[in-house]
Amino acid sequence: MDFVCVSRVLFEKLNLNYEEGERWIVNLIRNSKLDAKIDSETGTVIMEPNQPNVYEQLIDHTKALQGRTYKLVGQLLEPSQAQPAR
Question: For the PCI domain, which residue ranges apply (predicted)?
């Protein structure tokens, strides 16, 4: 099933003509920040797989590790801070 067939059914359900429906899909792609393109010659939407960048994954894991390490150090220091000074 290609984009034209699906779009006709979808646009009929949404009560939109083809041009309005195409604009609706363009806005949907823009607002959802999808990595997609519309091929107007074939009337299809081409979507790239949404895989996070390796560098972004590394940064996210590093941030999570930093937070966990901070909590762990805080838990280790709590008993020594609770003891009265001699």
Answer: 1-52
Q: What is the domain count for the chain?
A: 2
Q: How far is CA 63 from CA 7, 8, 15, 33, 57, in A?
A: 42, 46, 47, 24, 10
**Sign of CA pseudo-dihedral 9, 14, 16, 21:** negative
CB 3 within 8 A of CB 18: no
Q: How many other C-beta atoms are found inside a 10 Å radius of the C-beta of residue 8?
A: 13
Cα diameter, the chain: 83
Coil, helix or strand at residue 15: coil
Predicted TM-score of the model (pTM): 0.44
- pLDDT digits 0-9 by tens, 47-67: 777 677 888 888 888 888 888
